[in-house]
């Protein structure tokens, strides 16, 4: 829940309390988070899928394990080595029985798409993502978990749009997916959408995917601060209203989205004391899975300190200590921050 507050500038005492809590509070238990990223979604998809395959399940499992090995290498930056592990998998897929063939192509195509995405070959990346989406749409009636896989691949397609600078298209896809996951509101995106099918999926699977989308929005806000008003006002307004009515339990990806957006809106409305209190609440409430969102708030707080008088600016080194000592950030964000720092000092 959001702390009660008055709408005023923080006092020196408010800042002192904030930083005292920041430096003395024990870290939030890391296992309170929802899990991480595409590997978790893929593994849970696979676990749910394999027992229902009528023929070729063992061969499908062996091929997918090889594919996952290649995908993990690509995620570590070993693109060509990882793709080389995929090539024999791609060659073997046509030998599988009908269902296993379709499932293998559905699940491996995003890995090929990722390779081309990281190479900057966006047209090819889009083609493989589209293929996986089309197969997921075709087969989700028999294998319900592919409904989740299609959501994930549409999200990956939005990443390609964003990488190509198609922000309006990419953000609209994210808006529709996040509303669907949180509220069941049917998207207007191509394909078959059915809210009861969504509710058949494991809650943990939905939370992992929702968290991945929230982290992408946070990363985009950190990378492109000029897009943050669009994210808050156009992307998150409807879902925030719906989630407020249901009051999701914290910590969860759903409550985190509400609390993060509330802090951002306090700042945008110049309710600086409210922002400080809400930020303190967020940093203390959420585990390391939400550190990217924490950085977004801490960066805003740093700007607030920078504009304050000297007695308040004196707290800035403690904020840097918190960032460097307690936040666990993804490699791509660290790379972006370093690149930005290098440009700024050039």
Written overview of the protein:
With 346 residues, the protein is mainly alpha-helical. It has 18 helices and no strands. Mean pLDDT is 86; it is low at 1-5 and 31-35. The longest helix is centred in the N-terminal third of the chain and has 21 residues, at 98-118. It is 73% helix and 0% strand. It has two domains: 1-33 and 251-340, no CATH class; 35-248, Alpha Horseshoe (Serine Threonine Protein Phosphatase 5, Tetratricopeptide repeat), CATH 1.25.40. The protein is elongated, with a radius of gyration of 22 Å.
What is the strand and helix layout of this fold?
Layout: H1 12-24, H2 37-49, H3 57-75, H4 79-92, H5 98-118, H6 122-139, H7 146-163, H8 167-183, H9 195-199, H10 203-223, H11 228-235, H12 237-246, H13 253-268, H14 272-285, H15 291-306, H16 310-313, H17 316-326, H18 331-345
Helix pairs in contact: 1-14, 2-7, 2-10, 3-4, 3-5, 4-5, 5-6, 6-7, 7-8, 7-10, 8-10, 8-12, 10-15, 13-14, 13-15, 14-15
| Main sheet characteristics | none
Basic shape:
elongated
- Mean pLDDT across the residues is 86
Count up the domains: 2
Please tell me the CATH architecture of the largest domain by its name. Alpha Horseshoe
- CATH fold type of the largest domain: Serine Threonine Protein Phosphatase 5, Tetratricopeptide repeat
Total DSSP E strands: 0
Strand content: under 5%
Number of helices: 18
CATH class categorisation of the largest domain:
Mainly Alpha
Low-pLDDT segments, ≥5 res: 1-5, 31-35
Derived structural class: mainly alpha
Order of helices and strands: HHHHHHHHHHHHHHHHHH
What is the alpha-carbon Rg in Å? 22 Å
Helical fraction:
over 70%
What is the terminal-to-terminal distance? 44 Å
């Amino acid at each position: 829940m959001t702390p009660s507050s008055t709408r005023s500038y923080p006092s020196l005492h408010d800042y002192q309390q904030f930083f005292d809590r920041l430096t003395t509070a024990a870290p939030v238990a890391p296992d309170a988070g929802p899990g991480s990223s595409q590997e978790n979604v893929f593994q849970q998809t696979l676990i749910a899928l394999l027992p229902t395959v009528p023929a070729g399940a063992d061969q499908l499992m062996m091929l997918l394990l090889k594919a996952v090995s290649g995908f993990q290498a690509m995620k570590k930056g070993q693109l060509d080595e990882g793709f080389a592990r995929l090539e024999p998998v791609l060659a073997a897929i046509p030998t599988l029985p009908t269902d296993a063939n379709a499932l293998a192509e559905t699940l491996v195509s995003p890995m090929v798409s990722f390779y081309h995405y990281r190479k900057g070959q966006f047209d090819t990346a889009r083609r493989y993502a589209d293929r996986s989406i089309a197969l997921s749409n075709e087969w989700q009636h028999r294998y319900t978990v592919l409904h989740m896989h299609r959501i994930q691949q549409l999200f990956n397609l939005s990443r390609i749009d964003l990488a190509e600078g198609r922000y309006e298209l990419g953000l609209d896809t994210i808006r529709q997916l996040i509303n669907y996951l949180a509220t069941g509101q049917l998207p207007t995106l191509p394909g078959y959408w059915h809210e009861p099918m969504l509710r058949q999926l494991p809650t943990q699977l939905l939370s992992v995917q929702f968290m991945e989308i929230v982290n992408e929005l946070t990363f985009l806000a950190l990378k492109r601060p000029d897009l943050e008003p669009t994210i808050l006002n156009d992307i998150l307004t409807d879902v925030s209203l719906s989630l407020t009515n249901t009051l999701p339990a914290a910590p969860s990806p759903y409550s985190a989205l509400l609390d993060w957006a509330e802090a951002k809106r306090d700042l945008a409305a110049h309710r600086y004391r409210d922002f400080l209190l809400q930020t303190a609440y967020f940093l203390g409430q959420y585990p390391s899975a939400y550190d990217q969102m924490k950085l977004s708030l801490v960066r805003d707080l740093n700007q607030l300190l920078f504009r304050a008088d000297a007695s308040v600016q004196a707290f800035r080194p403690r904020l840097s200590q918190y960032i460097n000592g307690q936040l666990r950030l993804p490699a791509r964000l660290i790379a972006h921050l370093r690149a930005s720092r290098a440009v700024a000092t050039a």
